[in-house]
Design brief:
The protein has two helices and five strands; from the N terminus they run H-E-H-E-E-E-E. By secondary structure, it is an alpha+beta fold. The chain has one domain. Strands 1, 2, 3, 4 and 5 form a five-stranded antiparallel β-sheet that branches. The longest helix has 13 residues, at about 25-40. The radius of gyration is 12 Å and the shape is globular.
Amino acid sequence: MPQVSSELVEILVCPETKQPVALASAEQLEKLNAGVRDGSLRNRGGEAVGDEIVEGLVREDGKVLYVVDDGIPVMLVEESIEL
């Protein structure tokens, strides 16, 4: 499975606040995936998140996660997830 490159992570910023992002920890992903499994996790656009999150980027302030889908960061505010 493709992973987002570290070079890309270094240059990416949150489109909303311009804060840097970093790879989400396994612990953060597991908490989110528990919400995916029980149907409670929603993105900021209000849609239920249906697929477990394998990789994500967390904004520097720790409040928002952007999902990485098949090695490609989805840097859309409405697709992001509040932490």
